[in-house]
Amino acid sequence: MSMHSAYLPQSAYLPRPITGQSRYSVVNLVILHFAKPMRTTWPPALTRLTCISHSSHTTLPHSAPILAGHCQAARRLTTSSIRSWSLEDLPRVSQETNPLIFHLTSDNPYYNLSIEHYLLTHSHPDTRILLFYTNRPCVVIGRNQNPWLETDLKRLQQGLPPEDGRVPQTADKNYGPIHKTQLRKNGRAVPIDLVRRRSGGGTVFHDSGNLNYSVIIPNSKSFKRSTHADMVVRALSSASSRYQFADIRVNDRNDIVMRRETESQWLKVSGSAYKLTRGRALHHGTLLYSSPYLDKISELLRSPGRDFIEAKGVESVRSPVGNLVWTPDPRKRAEVKTGITQSIVREFWRMYGGDQERRAGVNEVTLGSEECAEDTSPEIASGVKELMSNAWRFEQTPRFDFASGTVDGKAVGFQANRGVLEHLSLKSVSGGSVERAKSDFKEEIKLHDVKSWKGLITGGNTNTNTQEQAGQIVPEASALARNSASSGGGGDVPDALVKRIEAVFPRSNV
């Protein structure tokens, strides 16, 4: 893979030489066609509140603090006429103010996706909404994807080296289930969230150098996938000389791709997918503008189970990807993001704003969840809780088959649905075999929570948990022990085979 260089003029957002990067991975985008906008009158201006900030210039910080308020949303907005509206009033407010632009300062992917979903499902059917947010490091899979096929879960558990020497001191409740991070020479590893979004499409990696943008529009039959990819391309084309790429366009897959002045290869900076609800359509996309972890994306999204899993869900399509620009300085990176964001906002406003003025706090609002009090939207809090749960992340996985291949004369195969084991077999090249059905287990065997694969396969009591320490045998082990003894097909399982399975299906702590 070649490296690319780009130089920005002193008048540009980045006053120092920068180097472009490219790696192989996946970037995805949800795109839908916008119908003709509706023009309406304006409500009273919003006054400054702790959860809603506004200024004459929108500033998007590089990284927002990770506090307990991340899981919460602003409940009330107060107007200059002493009137107030809550998020539950969004249908009325969004009818009175069209279009709307939201900037989220949170870097919590569970919160940001929950806000996005709330805007999608509660805004007035005729309203156009543009939303921006940036997440902390996370791997986001599509609604109908298989996490064991799309990412290296054990690698995710190891985390990432600190981006700039700053790492969280504790993994607070907003990092989801317990992160098992490892000590590294340069400090504690940075946790990586595993997230299943509510829309379709493929798997993506997010970090501080990736801008997420969402467009919520009327669900029109005149749908055209390229409409808002073209909008983003127009916004970026105006800065092509600044960022030193020769061309940027929408390809035949409705991906956004760019090419450097000195290179012939097209690099993907955004992809495509979409989501429809009754009366509403969601377009949400990622934009790799300056990812500090670009060289890590491929290893994070390279599953060790790719040769062993046959899945029923949607599988991602890999493509060479690259940063629009590169700078290691978080401050300069934030400046680039601000410039790109404002370019996209201007194109969006040309399409739907008409002769209206963009007014901070009225039709362009910044939400900072970390500043919010506890009296927040219970629906958004419930959405965050759902996205963080293993029941959502793993147990929404469509049916799939696993075949380990033969290792030292033995092979393991199983079928699973919704992340729960349905059938398990251990076969030997000598002809012996053991078959386990779901009914053979006292309890559901959830693949993300298997304590010992060797114990599960052989029926041996090799699991280590509090029940075993008290002298009790775990349910799955005892069931398999009975079946193994009666069939005579059990026996030793090669350690190399167990390691192969554990590499694909580690016990979840991300």
TrEMBL record:
Residues making up the signal peptide according to the UniProt record: none
Matching PROSITE patterns: BPL_LPL_CATALYTIC
Annotated pathway: Protein modification; protein lipoylation via exogenous pathway; protein N(6)-(lipoyl)lysine from lipoate: step 2/2
Domain BPL/LPL catalytic: 124-352
Domain of life: Eukaryota
Membrane-crossing segments per the record: none
GO BP term, example: protein lipoylation
Alphabetical list of CDD domains matching this protein: LplA
A molecular-function term among this protein's GO annotations: lipoyltransferase activity
InterPro entries (UniProt xref): aa-tRNA-synth_II/BPL/LPL, BPL_LPL_catalytic, LipoylTrfase_LipoateP_Ligase
Any Gene Ontology CC annotation: mitochondrion
Main function: Catalyzes both the ATP-dependent activation of exogenously supplied lipoate to lipoyl-AMP and the transfer of the activated lipoyl onto the lipoyl domains of lipoate-dependent enzymes.
Protein family membership: Belongs to the LplA family.
PANTHER family: LIPOATE-PROTEIN LIGASE, LIPOYLTRANSFERASE 1, MITOCHONDRIAL
Protein name, per record: Putative lipoate-protein ligase A
Species name: Vermiconidia calcicola
